[in-house]
Amino acid sequence: MHDCHRSFIILALLAALALPFSASSQSATRKQMQQKLDRIILTRIVFEETRVADVLRTLRDRVREVDLDDDRPFNLVIRAKKEALDGLVSLDMENIPAGEAIRYVCMVAGLRYVVEPHAVVILDEAATAERMETRIYHIDPSVIDKKKSDKLEFNKK
Known about the structure:
β4 (about 110-115) and β5 form a beta hairpin. The strands form two sheets. Strands 2-5-4 form a three-stranded mixed sheet. It is of the alpha+beta class. It is extended and about 65 Å long. It has helices spanning about 5-20, 25-40, 50-65, 80-85, 100-110, 145-150; strands spanning about 40-50, 75-80, 90-95, 110-115, 120-125. The protein contains six helices and five strands. α3 runs antiparallel to α5 (about 100-110).
């Protein structure tokens, strides 16, 4: 095999390894993270007029204590303004899945969360985590009647 062919093959392999996760693999890892949050049960959580930031850190630490999955540790990313994290919350819950505990904290604090493949992201109203996606659908031209589509009329009610 020539050196140029060998170099090309090595470059092709490196390029393939460098590709990001496909949408389906990201969806699968996101599902795994959600399943982890559903599977981990927190026996008792009590917070009395506690800062939201402290509640989230405590939940993160409690989930990490219970989580035995060393391959995929629980990560919590907070992308919220300081004002939202300084608010006070009171919660008293028993035998609750970790995902539900996070959901309730976010609901009480006026935050939202997004389950990503490798972390749970806490967001305030101004922050965005979703990525825009463009989808193109091919439609068979025979489905559209040109004469009718030129003059669309709407029923007035």
